[in-house]
Write the C-alpha cells for this entry.
Amino acid sequence: MPRPLGELEDAVMTRVWKWNRPVTVREVLEDLQQERSIAYTTVMTVLDNLHQKGWVRREAEGRAYRYEAVSTRAAYAAALMNEAWSQSDNPAAALVAFFGMMSEEQRHALRDAVRIAQGPESPGPAPPPASDTARTNPGSAPEGDGR
C-alpha cells in the first residue's frame, strides 16, 4: 500500500504523470527550476527513491535513465483513499464525513463514478428522484390529488 508522496516526490511525479512518457532527470529538473531552485542530484535522488518504492520504472539510455510512471495519478489517489478508509474503525462514518466535505461538483463526480463502477443495471423500476417526496415518503401526497 502506498504511503503519501512527500512534497518533492509529488512535484516530480506530477510531471511524470502529466507528460505521460519516459522522462529524464534533466527534463524534470528544468521544469522544476521554473518554480524553485533545485540541484540535479536532488532530482536524481528523488527519481531513484521513487524507483525503489515502485512508483516509476526506468530504462538505461547511455549513462542516464529514462523514468516512466508505473500507474496513473488517479490510481495513486484511489489507493490513498482506500488506505485511509480501511484504517478507520468505522468505515461508514468515515465515508459520511468524507462525503460531507465534498463540493456539489465532487458529489456529482462520485455519483457518476458509482454508476460506472456498478456497470449496466438490470432492467427494473428506477428509484424515485430525491425530490419526489410523495413516493419516498408514503402518506405525504401532494395537495389536491384526492388521496
User: Anything to note?
Assistant: The mean pLDDT is 84. The two ends are 57 Å apart (CA to CA). Strands lie at 23-24, 56-61, 64-69.
